[in-house]
Design a protein that fits this description.
38% helix, 52 residues, 2 helices, mainly alpha
Length: 52
């Protein structure tokens, strides 16, 4: 499904300059998909939550 979305985006926008995908470190299956599609880590995001 992810590959189909990427191909569709490239058909509509042949030179997008890059695509980003955020995937949680714990999501090993999705990280494997990203690796197979050629994605490379470029940034890290952190989420903080404060219990009130």
């Amino acid at each position: 499904m992810k590959a189909a979305c990427i191909l569709g985006a490239r058909e509509r926008h042949p030179d997008p300059g890059g695509l980003l995908a955020d995937t949680a470190d714990g999501s090993t299956y999705m990280r494997a998909v990203n690796d197979a599609l050629g994605y490379e880590p470029t940034h890290r995001s952190f989420t903080y939550q404060l219990d009130l």
